[in-house]
Design brief:
It is built from 13 helices and 10 strands. The protein is α/β, with parallel strands linked by helices. It folds into 2 domains: 111 residues, no CATH class; 176 residues, Rossmann fold (3-Layer(aba) Sandwich), CATH 3.40.50. The strands form 3 sheets. The protein has a 6-stranded parallel beta sheet, sandwiched between helices. Strands 1-2 form a two-stranded parallel sheet. It has a two-stranded parallel sheet with strand order 3-4. The longest helix has 13 residues.
């Protein structure tokens, strides 16, 4: 939107604190919590809206809502406050499409008469990436490439088997790389303290409670490996060489966007665990990321390995 509409000031309201990270690195101009703007009153036809919310929303020339389509009550109430049409986009993928979700959102804007350039080609630059890399190096140690692996995801079905990642990290370490794990409160809550001890058996563990600090680590590493999860998207967006591991979700719709992204299947029937580990380790030896993704993912991994 910034690129297509002549560089307007963009404020983003979201639940995740990742918006503060995006503001700090200059991707957006202002970050706000969604709860302080779109309160529960927006979900009731007759709820009284706070005056400060009304004043805030009326200070914008355009409001793009990803809180549901035009028929949703939130969209109707936003239009009531703004006294004009709200650009309401349903954030859920169209079940009949396999185009990327960002392109689907772009189509929603275009249908509202607001042309946007191809979002897939937008790239961002983290200006203080060398500083972030130095901070990460101090925590990890080693002299070669830092390879950061985040083993978690919002859904267990999207997570690569831990034994596969452990074998992969051990193989990287034997090749002289500097691998490290990155985990946060979600992993600790789900798996407990023993999880950290297990990971420490193969590589150093970086524990970060702050989403913003975790995003800095992802943006400062040399190579990032992760499941279909938020930090994998952050690393890709920051221009990091990123291996995104996909299982049940469709990378055609949900793959991370960035100049150096490589999509791989989780180990399974087509690629047993031990073969997966060997192929992935060999692939890292010769990484030459391209600004593309691979539809035939398992075959590509086997060939490259």
């Amino acid at each position: 939107m910034k690129k297509s509409w002549g560089g307007p000031r963009v404020t983003v309201a979201a639940r995740s604190s990742i918006v503060r990270w995006a503001k700090r690195h200059g991707f957006i101009d202002e970050a706000r919590s969604i709860e302080e703007i779109v309160t529960h009153c927006f979900y009731h036809p007759d709820g009284e809206l706070p005056e400060h919310t009304v004043r805030f929303l009326r200070g914008f020339d355009r409001v793009v809502s990803l809180l549901g389509g035009r028929e949703e009550i939130v969209s109707q109430r936003l239009a009531q406050v703004l006294r004009r049409e709200v650009l309401a986009i349903d954030p859920r993928p169209n079940p009949g499409l396999t185009t990327h979700i960002v392109e689907q959102w772009g189509d929603g804007l275009r249908e509202n008469g607001l042309p946007v350039d191809a979002a897939m080609s937008v790239q961002f630059e983290i200006r203080d990436r060398p500083e972030l890399h130095d901070r990460l190096r101090a925590g990890v140690g080693g002299a070669n490439r830092i390879i950061l692996c985040h083993p978690g995801s919002g859904g267990l079905e999207k997570c690569c088997p831990l034994e596969a990642l452990e074998g992969f990290m051990a193989a990287l370490k034997s090749r002289g790389e500097s691998p490290a794990w990155m985990i946060g409160p979600d992993e600790m809550e789900r798996f407990g303290a023993d999880y950290t001890h297990r990971l420490e058996g193969t590589a150093p563990v970086l524990y970060e409670e702050s989403v913003e600090t975790a995003a800095d680590l992802a943006g400062g590493t040399d190579v990032f490996i992760g499941n279909d999860a938020g930090m994998t998207h952050v690393a890709a967006l920051a221009g990091v060489s990123t291996i995104a591991l996909f299982g049940p979700t469709d990378p055609a719709v949900w793959r991370p966007l960035g100049p150096h992204v490589y999509i791989c299947d989780l180990p399974g029937a087509l690629l047993p665990l031990d073969e997966w580990v060997r192929a992935m380790a060999s692939r890292v030896d010769t990484f030459s990321f391209a600004a593309q993704w691979c539809r035939n993912r398992s075959d590509n991994l086997l060939e490259s390995g």
